[in-house]
Design a protein that fits this description.
There is one protein chain. The protein is of the alpha+beta class. The protein folds into four domains: 91 residues, Rossmann fold (3-Layer(aba) Sandwich), CATH 3.40.50.20; 64 residues, Dna Ligase, domain 1 (2-Layer Sandwich); 126 residues, 2-Layer Sandwich (D-amino Acid Aminotransferase, Chain A, domain 1); 86 residues. The strands form four sheets. It has an eight-stranded antiparallel sheet. Strand 10 and strand 11 form a beta hairpin.
């Protein structure tokens, strides 16, 4: 029977779950602030509302008599989704759990309570607090908002001269004006996509993360699934983490670093990985339909839990445009015709476009691809790097793409 499903968010990474609601035969109501968001064109009804406005979204949900509420690939609406489902007696995670998975300080404190390793950290109220932590630690630190997403507001501090700017920058991206400072660990970083049902957690796939080195945005230029390394330690750590955090059901996206012989939590989230990791890359590797799962959960239905190894290796690669004006673009059509190609944001590049440079994950241009094995995947990645040519006129002359 056709149901009314409210989806929070209309950005490009919410498009797959919006389309999946329609595919499953239901009515989709999309909630988002006004803007040029691609999800609007696939909706049956649009509600213009800030997705973090819990009471505002609840009022709309009541008036529309919705049957379920959901989202994917974004942290911002997770608390609102829990708030509305709890108030209306719909299927969903509880509000306290939603807060735990969307607040970096709370998840750090919970790890400490559980005896799980996490990076050293401290909630700070001023640049002086960061300075004291920096001096005490005697090494580089990361300053970040407690409650942002997409690497917004994050900066590394390697010198006392950087502290004031880093504190102000982080605070400007925090909805609660809260800032946290953490030790900067160096090690192998992993991303874990998982699923919980009836309180039981299972991995969907564990992947490797490779970060940009030439630009300090704390965003990966590549994530590949599955990992080429032994991930038994990571899987065990993440299962204990998620089940101890009390998530009853839903998708999870965790980022961890293995350093000093231990697995340390960077952060975890009660949603699938962005950049269409959840909707497309996980499905390519495991056959698991994450969006259908979330819709079934929202309706209180028993979801399809089938997960299997497809034998496919999947990845996203990303690059930045330097700040300036795009003068030439070549190779896009050839890139999109390659046998490994799944999806991309390449169409966002055109001659005459003004590039604002790089500050966080949101300004990356990405390509999703798949291959039969890791060796073939590396060959495919080299193909894209060689075939896509973009020239940008900057204040320092003509520059090309920034791949890592």
């Amino acid at each position: 029977m056709k149901k009314k499903i409210m989806v929070l968010g209309a950005g490009e990474f919410q498009v797959p779950i919006i389309k999946k609601v329609k595919e499953m035969g239901h009515e989709v109501i999309v909630v988002s602030p006004k803007g040029d968001y691609p999800g609007f064109k696939f909706s049956d009804q649009i509600i213009y509302e800030d997705v973090s406005n819990e009471k505002g979204v609840l009022s709309h949900a009541k008036n529309l008599n919705i049957d379920g509420i959901t989202t994917n690939q974004t942290d911002i609406p997770v608390r609102t989704m829990a708030y509305v489902s709890t108030k209306l007696g719909l299927s969903g995670i509880d509000y306290e759990t939603a807060c735990l998975f969307t607040d970096k300080l709370m998840m750090r404190d919970k790890c400490a309570e559980l005896g799980l390793d996490t990076v050293k950290y401290k909630l700070v109220n001023s640049a002086k607090d960061i300075e004291n932590f920096f001096v005490e630690l005697g090494s580089a630190v990361i300053v970040k908002p407690v409650d942002s997403q997409g690497s917004r507001g994050i900066q590394v501090v390697e010198s006392l001269n950087d502290i004031e700017k880093a504190f102000s920058y982080a605070a400007s991206f925090s909805r609660s004006n809260s800032v946290i400072v953490e030790e900067f660990l160096v090690g192998d970083e992993f991303v874990i996509e998982g699923v919980v049902y009836d309180g039981n957690y299972n991995d969907l796939v564990v992947g490797d993360s490779f970060y940009f080195e030439t630009v300090k945005t704390f965003s990966p230029y590549c994530r590949q699934f599955p990992s080429e390394k032994n991930t038994d330690l990571i899987s065990k750590f993440n299962k204990q983490l998620i089940e101890s955090f009390g998530l009853s059901f839903g998708l999870t996206h965790s980022e961890v670093i293995v350093a000093k012989g231990k697995c340390h939590l960077i952060e975890t989230a009660a949603r699938g990985g962005g950049v269409n990791i959840s909707s497309k890359l996980v499905k390519a590797c495991s056959g698991f339909d994450a969006d259908a799962f979330m819709i079934d959960i929202a309706l209180g239905n028993t979801p399809n839990m089938e997960v299997y190894n497809t034998g496919v290796v999947s990845s996203y690669i990303a690059f930045y445009l330097p700040e300036g004006t795009v003068k030439t673009v070549d190779g896009i059509i050839l890139a999109k015709s390659h046998c490994s190609y799944i999806d991309s944001s390449l169409d966002s590049i055109s001659v005459g476009n003004k590039s604002l440079g790089f500050s966080d994950k949101t300004s990356r241009v990405y390509i999703l691809l798949s291959a039969n094995n890791h060796s073939e995947l590396r060959e495919c990645i080299d193909f894209y790097k060689n075939v896509i040519k973009v020239d940008v006129l900057t204040n320092n002359g003509m520059r090309g793409l920034i791949w890592n």
